[in-house]
Amino acid sequence: MCAYNQVNGVPMCARKDLLQKTRDEWGFKGYITSDCDAVAIIHENQTYTTSDEDSIAIVLKAGMDLNCGSFLVRHTHTKSAIEKGKVQEQDIDRALFNLFFVQFRLGIFDKFNDNRLGPSNVCTAEHRELAAEAVKQGAVLLKNDNGFLPLKRSEVRHVAVIGPSANDAYAMGGNYTGVPCNPTTFVKGMQAYVAQTTFASGCKDVSCNSTDLFSEAIEAAKAADIVVVVAGLNLTEEREDFDRVSLLLPGKQMNLIHTVASVTKKPLVLVLLGGGPVDVSFAKHDPRIASILWLGYPGEVGGQVLPEILFGKYNPGGKLAMTWYPESFTAIPMTDLMNL
């Protein structure tokens, strides 16, 4: 998918060098689509071209095959581009070839393929294993003082899992999440490893605008051998067309972490959810927070995989998708990507 932004002043969907590179150097055999209305903004917002027809011509010739949205057919833009000689038949043929090639590979045109897909096609053990593998490979260990992780099962009899997302399957799914087949929350997953697992939300929800539930979290933390605090974001804080206004943890989440950390028997483990960086510089040098683990949005098997990571079955050796500068996060302006 080619995105909205520009690279060196050229819209992504018009970058023939980059789009063609996926085929020539990476061996990509699929089709390239635009992000929704990324073609429309080339003329309307970015003013990179002088007309809608020019926008259509430049993306088709660059190697884009499919437009997300109605721009190519709206007001007969593509027809007009053809009539004005800006788009040739071979440009259309190339895009159609890539689109139909994928459909033939999927068997859509096979005689006995009725194309009736349902839950039985996705809610399989194989797909669940693949989802779990994605979590394992994507988990990032941001901090691990004195080799605190992995934990030893023989030494952990009681775990407290704390946080508004710790027992919420909804929080584990990111934008455009489908309907999970059999979600496993972090609490449920931990209970499979450590029978005496207690849960306290600490906050009513991820926005965490009150300390009313802190006392319950404090009592749970005091009683446990190990405390895991699940903090970060969900779709009430970030999603498409709904950007964050701050890189800090929402509401009083930071206060919750500090409060819990002050009463635990051992330093706690901080688990972060979210699609982008959050400012956890407060935890970086805090000896009461032994480990910080970033999981992104781990999906329906996130709860199953978390204890497997914490107890050393898997090494959280993933890499962040972007560089974090925790000491200067709050000084970074939140810019409009359309203008980059």
UniProtKB/TrEMBL annotation:
GO terms (BP aspect): arabinan catabolic process; xylan catabolic process
Start and end residues of each Glycoside hydrolase family 3 C-terminal domain: 140-327
Keywords: Glycosidase, Hydrolase, Signal
Gene Ontology MF term list: alpha-L-arabinofuranosidase activity; xylan 1,4-beta-xylosidase activity
All residue ranges annotated as the Glycoside hydrolase family 3 N-terminal domain in the record: 1-96
Entry-linked PANTHER family: BETA-D-XYLOSIDASE 6-RELATED (PTHR42721:SF1), SUGAR HYDROLASE-RELATED (PTHR42721)
Protein name in UniProt: Uncharacterized protein
Annotated source species: Panicum virgatum
